[in-house]
Write the structure tokens for this entry.
Amino acid sequence: MSIVIINWRGGENDPFTYFSACMKQAIERMGRPTHIVDLDGHTIRKLAELSSERIDFVILWQGLGSQLGATDTSSITVWDQLKVPVLSYHGDHPCHMPIHHKATSPWVHHIYASAAFTMFANKYVPRESGATFFAQPTWFTDGVKGRFEGDFFVLPKNLDDLDTTLDGWRKAPERRVASFLLNAADAIIGEFRNGNRTSHHDIIDNMLDAETMAALCADLKSEEFTVRIHLHKLLDKIYRNAVSEHIVNDLKDVPLKIYGRGWERFQRRQNPNHEYLAFDTMSDNAFQYASRYGILDVAPIHDCLHDRTLRAMSNRAGFLMGADWPYETLLGTDYSDLFFDGADGSVRTRAERVMQSPEAHRARCCEFARHYQNHFSLFGFIKYFEQMSDTVRARARG
């Protein structure tokens, strides 16, 4: 009796190989044999071999592999054939590769790390059973081990330059579509600067009234679901790129090491306080969490903790996060000093406090991490997956 993790090595900076290794180690600490199977030309054969010793359930990242075995003429997946529960854990919005978010097989269940993503999936994505929300625990293991050196912040973030994106839309031939995208981008950026309380996907949907949607469907010559998904996908990264650029602009005199692609326009400023470096694979960059000031993190949406913050927590490192994570609702405590928005002075005030006393800041982050782990423990996460696999098995068998 074992658990299988399906791994995909093709992602940018290969995050899933690292996630899979950490998850395997965490599950095996609880006495459950766990196998990692790469998503490639040999996946189905390897699954067939493992099925002889019984697979309790399968874990997927971002739905990759949920349609394994299906063809253009048949929707039957390998999971339908093996009759094994598949739990797909998502850290991305359903607008990205929507085929990986559909729940057409009774053996596949989707779980999201963000309540906002879960809401969108249940509202718009075709599915036989509802998606659920479960916050990601701190399962990462690195090796910083409390050794912190260097008076600088680390910003680990690939960038899609906002100027390039917005200029492209200004020149686009579909004027009504371009106008909608530009207006929505302004609204998303404005919300970040005015408190960051509303999901940027809710902002987009609130702007898509019936008249606007009908006009955009006509211009794009497509039906409503496809148009909605397309618009959300185009606008999704506006939020995180706006947060990223705001950090660099607002902390122009603060020492930053910025890891990632896409920062060429900022590099040309030749700011001596900012150093731009290459972003290696996820498994090889634990050193990014070892500075005295810690990381500056950018979540994909306002209401979830990003994996980089969770990794900082695992390393007992410092962090400041550009999000409106609901600490009062979920933890019942005010942690506003660890989160910032785009209001004047928000990130700067917090950065200055960190620079004045990095040790006190790390202690505060460790306090938050302990509080978070008490509510969203790794044990609770695995038990939830076990219980959900039983639910899926019972539902699929009718």
